[in-house]
Design goal:
There is one protein chain. By secondary structure, the protein is an alpha/beta fold. It is built from 10 helices and 12 strands. The mean pLDDT is 95. Bound molecules: 2'-monophosphoadenosine-5'-diphosphate. 2'-monophosphoadenosine-5'-diphosphate binds next to helix 6.
Length: 272
């Protein structure tokens, strides 16, 4: 029997998740179908209810519904609780009435950085630009690796302070984006949405050293203004394709209980 999954968002046409999960299912010889679902704003709950009535086993959730998915779940993992957002729902129980919520974005990012790119986060000086939804999704996973510095820089200081306060007792610190220290960091992550409009968050070349990794969580935008600046400053650069593949692999594990390899999917997405 074919098991039914989907990704839900608004907009959704651009989502690569159906392609990725189809590749994973082929590799593992699992019989699944995976759809794209466009939910009208304010109709997340009704749309997922309808999908569950069709016997669905799970759903990936993307912008802007990750907070609604958090509220929809009846059971949450610690990492989903920590970031207050859910990107993966699994439906279980006799009639699919159990709704298990997880968030695989953070582990997707940290696996890409540490395993695929081979850059340790432990002991590294990390600068994260942005304090919106994307930053909330990954801060906890980055801190789990115990960087020596974890600076959260945001245009609006208050939001950086709120995010840092969630992780009080760690070395998370908030700084204002227009008041960045001129020191180099080992890992600089762009978690702002500035790359969507090809704008540049206010980093300076002095924030990069030649060994630094500049990571833009955005993908499919070519070389963003952030990555261009980093490359000119001599840093190594990466876009969010690896994170996309890794968060999907972790979701596949949550649903199917098997670990898939991501290298061929990353190669496929990079060639597109
Ligand atoms: P997302 O879910 O993509 O994180 P969001 O929650 O709207 O979207 O957050 C967008 C983030 O990008 C915020 O940190 C925002 O900064 P503000 O909190 O000051 O608005 C940041 N951002 C967006 N455009 C930016 C730009 N041009 N320069 C710097 N930061 C920018």
């Amino acid at each position: 029997m074919t098991h039914l999954y989907a990704v839900i968002g608004n907009p959704i046409a651009q989502s690569k998740s159906p392609l990725i999960h189809a590749a994973f299912a082929r590799e593992m010889r699992h019989d699944i179908s995976y759809e794209r679902i466009l939910a009208p704003l304010g109709k997340f709950r009704e749309t997922v209810d309808e999908f569950r009535r069709r016997g669905a086993r799970g759903i990936n959730v993307t912008v802007p519904f990750k907070f609604e998915a958090f509220a929809y779940a009846t059971d949450l993992t610690d990492r989903a609780k920590a970031c207050g957002a859910v990107n993966t729902l699994r439906f279980g129980g006799e009639d699919g009435e159990e709704i298990f919520g997880d968030n695989t974005d953070g582990i997707g990012l940290t696996r890409d950085i540490t395993e695929n790119l081979g850059v340790p986060i432990a002991g590294a000086r990390v600068l994260m630009l942005g304090a919106g939804g994307a930053a909330y999704g990954v801060a906890g996973a980055l801190l789990d690796h115990q960087p020596s510095i974890f600076a959260i820089a945001n245009r609006t200081h208050e939001k950086a302070a709120q995010l840092a306060a969630k992780y009080s007792g760690t070395n998370a610190r908030a700084i204002t984006l227009d008041n960045l220290p001129s020191q180099p960091f080992d890992i600089i992550i762009n978690a702002t949405s500035a790359s969507l409009s090809d704008e540049l968050p206010l980093v300076s070349p002095s924030n990069f050293a030649t060994h630094s990794l500049a990571y833009d969580m955005m993908y499919g935008k070519g070389e963003t203004a952030f990555l261009k600046l980093a490359r000119h400053a001599g840093a190594r650069t990466a876009d969010g394709v690896g994170m996309l593949a890794e968060q999907a692999a972790e979701a596949f594990y949550v649903w199917r209980g098997v670990r898939v390899k991501t290298a061929s999917v990353i190669a496929m997405l990079t060639q597109e």
